Amino acid sequence: MPILTKEQFEDLAKFDSNPCVSIFIPTVRAGKDVLEEKDKINLKSQWKKAVEELKAMGYPQDKIEKMGKPVNDLMDDSDFWRHQSDGLALFLADGFSKQYTLPIYFEAYTYVADHFYLKPLVPMFNGDGMFYLLHLQLDEVKLYEATPYSIGEVKIDDLTPNQLEDRVGYDYEEKNSKHKTQRNSVGANPQGTSTQHGYEAASRDRKNEILRFFRAVDKGIYEILHNESVPLIVACQDSYFPIYQEASRYKNLYPKPVPGNPEADHNSIFSLHAAALETLEPHFRKDREDKMKQFNDLNPSRTSSQVSEIIPAIFEGKVDTLFLQNREDIWGDYNEKMASVDVHEEKRNGSVSLMNLAAVKVLQQNGKAYLIEKEFMPNKDSKVNAVYRY
Question: What is the model's pTM?
Answer without folding.
Answer: 0.72
